[in-house]
TrEMBL record:
One of its GO terms (biological process) is chemical synaptic transmission. It comes from the Eukaryota. This is Exocyst complex component Sec8. Residues 273-323 form the Exocyst complex component Sec8 middle helical bundle domain. Pfam families: Sec8_C, Sec8_N. Residues 1-21 are annotated as: Disordered. Residues 46-144 form the Exocyst complex component Sec8 N-terminal domain. The keyword Cell wall biogenesis/degradation does not apply. Residues 45-97 form a coiled coil. Keywords: Coiled coil, Exocytosis, Protein transport, Transport. Component of the exocyst complex involved in the docking of exocytic vesicles with fusion sites on the plasma membrane. The gene is Exoc4_0.
Amino acid sequence: KMAAGEAAGRYRSTMSKSKDPSGLLISVIRTLSTSDDVEDRETEKGRLEEAYEKCDRDLDELIVQHYTELTTAIRTYQSITERITNSRNKIKQVKENLLSCKMLLHCKRDELRKLWIEGIEHKHVLNLLDEIENIKQVPQKLEQCMASKHYLNATDMLVSAVDSLEGPLLQVEGLSDLRLELHSKKMNMHLVLIDELHRHLYIKSTNRVGQRNKEKGRISSLVKDASPVPLMDVTNLSTPRKFLETSQFSTPGSSSMRETSLLEIKEDTELDPEENSTVFMGILIKGLAKLKKIPETVKAIQDRLEQELKQIVKRSTTQVADNGYQRGENLSQENQPR
């Protein structure tokens, strides 16, 4: 019993010194290796067996004393183990589901991208169809604008239609006839604008002078003014040249107002386009610029300058003669033959 007690005490002292269970084994091995006699070894072996028996008895007593707590701990441990196992299985299933969702989302993303591209294509096709529908109405609208002399709207419409027909709609074979027709109208459009410009430059302006002189003649005949009436008083007449000069040189050092005024000129479809001759000529110049026919316009003005000036002189001469003859008739009727 004393040997067993010593062995147990040695076991406890060894376990207290080191938490590692292998410490006891090392101590026993060291004891057996240092003993020289077989009897000592048998004695050591007996001590160990007694110590183990004592430990088994103590363990049995502790198990009996703490059976309820031990059973609860084992059941709790089993429950925790089962929960951990179930959680691992669920996490594995969740991972598999996530991978499956990822693959499905990739497929959906490709489908959505395809649908998005198809939507863009359909939208582009609809825009082209709307543009084609609008371009088909251009000849009729162009004819109406030309008839009402709204040349700027007509020019914008024609240039835009030709650009579309020769650009995005170039491959549409069904519009070939319309393309040729509008292209031909665009090539000849500047001729109409140049004629209108000459009419306002040389004819419309001189007609206004003549009408003003006729009014002055009528007023002078009513008041029996003996002083001669100036037939060509153009000092206060707003000619295009005076308009441009006063606009351009209005303030020293300022930017050219001629370009600004030309850019700001807009066409009002509700009003008579020829009511303001200066604005109308600005509209004509702007239309010619959109047609890129300014060089041709300058050349035409230079070529027809002499002819038009001769026509002005001829018309003015006839007008002066007619006015003089009419005044002579009026004076002779009033017995004032001078």
